[in-house]
Amino acid sequence: MQPTIINRFGKIVGWNNITLRLYGRDVEAFNEIEYHDKQNMANEYGGGKYPIGQSEGNYETENCSISFYSEELIALQKSIPPGKRIMDAPPAEVIVMYDYNGVIYKDIWRSSRPMNNGRAAKNSDGKIVTKIDFLVSHIDWSVQN
């Protein structure tokens, strides 16, 4: 008897399905992206050893970053006024789009601002990649077109 293999999800979303848009243009020269958010929560105690309820604190984004090739950082630098640093750029949306089963989904980083810049290279490196951290107010997940 042959086992039945069920492909529940079809084609899995992967790196080749991502489109990244920043400052009104599609970004091509990046090789890593990461973003998370969390809702702070806590158990609250009264009499006895078990919680009597739960509370919610502030919402936070964390580890929102993109690793850019130098060529892309140069292009981003050109998209802001001369003499300014990328950290001086006004807050903008970072849009991460991906296709899942024919539907385009967007994760949108709201009020995003680059927090750092730099370059590092060493002998035998064939590329220069810089990880840029972003300050993000909040993330809208899986927004459909």
Structural class: mainly beta
Number of helical stretches of at least 4 residues: 1
Largest sheet: 8 strands, antiparallel
Q: What is the 3D shape? A: extended
Task: List the uncertain runs.
Answer: none
Radius of gyration: 20 Å
Order of helices and strands: EEEEHEEEE
Number of E strands: 8
Kindly state the mean pLDDT as a whole number? 91
The protein's oligomeric status is: single chain
Strand content: over 45%
Termini separation (Å)?
45 Å
The percent of residues in helical segments reads: under 10%
Give me a quick take on this structure.
The protein is mostly beta strands and 145 residues long.
Defining key terms:
mainly beta; 145 residues; 1 helix; eight-stranded antiparallel beta sheet
Describe this structure as you would to a colleague.
The chain has a domain at 29-36 and 55-144. The protein is 6% helix and 54% strand. It contains 1 helix and 8 strands; from the N terminus they run ββββαββββ. It is extended. The model has no long low-confidence stretch (mean pLDDT 91).
